[in-house]
Protein: CBS domain-containing protein
Amino acid sequence: MTTTILEVGPAHTLRQAASQMAARKVGSAVVRDPDGNGHAIVTERDVLLAVAQGLDLDAVHVGDHVASSVVYASPEWSLDDAADAMARGRFRHLMVVDGPDVVGVVSVRDVIHAWAQERTGEARRGRDAGPSAVGTA
Structure:
């Protein structure tokens, strides 16, 4: 799980969000609603779809390209829970919330990396401990 979260507002343009994601080398940004209506996420896929549709990335706002239904994880979720939610929902980034706060983002890359470490024994925490928790990935 990545705990250094990139945040953008719904009024940012897609180009601004894409530039910030590229500078940070991340594939998503949390969209914080200034009116307090919850959190959303914008991803590289959203930017790619906008480019494919011929939209002007300098004129289109992030708030117009966020999903209407968002799946959130809690820090107690296992990596298997996160992977299952992402596979079922067909998305690659999952916000982790603790109460009203976004505390991290889990990406498919995070899950694969953690599973690879478990398989190769680089991050042995004891096989009897069960799958890693999202909050510790």
